[in-house]
Amino acid sequence: MADESWRLPNSAQQLASTVQEPPSRYLLREEEPLGRNLAGTEMPEPIPMIDLGLLSASNDADEAAKLRSAVLTWGFFQVSNHGMEASLMDSVMTASRDFFRLPLEEKRKYSNLIDEKHFQMEGDVLHEYTLKSKIIKDDILRAMARLLELDEDCLVNQFSDKALTYARFNYYPPCPRPDLVLGIKPHSDVFALTVLMDKDVEGLQVLRDGTWYNVPTVSNYTLLINVGVTMETMTNGVFRGPVHRVVTNAEKERISVAVFYGMDPEKEIGPIADMLNEEQPA
Fold it and tell me: Could you give the CA distance from residue 242 to residue 43 in angstroms, rounded to a whole number?
């Protein structure tokens, strides 16, 4: 166990630059409920890739079939031809990387620090990125509604003006013990949909039938879409939010940008009426 007599830095990024062995508070427990093996297994088939432009414009049967397979099998998929410019995606990743490389005091100057732990980044690039992500989100929701034989705007209309949108910038520094330290613990997203931009360095794993599978990094400016628990609830369990986690890397840093789309926090969430029947009650 590493010597922990000194005061721990207040961020994992600082900690990674100062210690050779991670403190015990970061290590996996001896009895990890979902398994201690962090190596993961290669996926049995490629991540489903959906041409969103083709699907949205014509409800292409092949793309719709791939989407159906993805949400029923994995709960996540990649989208290409989504309409977001490569230059904007590059700018967001560059801004994220530049921010995380700032000294802690500089981060405090250029952001709103929340609860002394989480930085709230602001700026034109982020604003444009979230606007473009919303268009992508709405296109996906309409395609999902068609799969369920609902009115095309049924799922989109579940999101009011008070619906939550939350952008999270994740930084995972190189870790000396990737076999013992998780980047993010196993969980399912509580929101409806997550739009994830994740490039170059692997780390995301998804749980299916008791096995953790390594999710390859996205390429060619594709985005990874993840179904959340709110969507699972609204569709009465037809679409399920997958359990996933993030592992660390001994040599490389990893940066990802996730935009989470939730509901009005004052709205009671339940199955859509048309998703209820005798064979599948609430």
Answer: 15
Residue found under tokens 């508070």: 25
Name the average pLDDT for the chain.
85
Q: What is the DSSP secondary-structure string of 146-194?
A: HHTT--TTTTGGG--TT--EEEEEEEE---S-TTTBEEEEEE--SSSEE
Distance CA 55, CA 62 (A): 9
CB 118 within 8 A of CB 110: no
pLDDT score of 149 more than 90: yes
Instruction: Round to whole Å and give the CA distance between 188 and 191.
Output: 9
Contact 248, 171 (CB under 8 A): no
Identify the band that residue 200 occupies on the pLDDT scale cut at 50, 70 and 90: confident
What distance in Å separates the CA atoms of residue 147 and residue 227, rounded to the nearest whole number? 14
- pLDDT of residue 31 exceeding 70, the answer is no
| Percentage of the chain lying above the pLDDT 90 cut | 52
Residue 153 predicted with pLDDT over 80: yes
Helix, strand, coil tally for the chain in percent (to 5): 30, 25, 45
**Residues in a beta bridge with 27:** 181
Higher per-residue pLDDT: 13 or 101: 101
Report pLDDT for 47: 86
Q: CA 61, CA 177: separation in Å to the nearest integer?
A: 46
Q: What is the 3-state secondary structure (H, E, C) of 214-266?
A: ECCCECCCCEEEEECHHHHHHCCCCCCCCCEEEECCCCCCEEEEEEEECCCCC
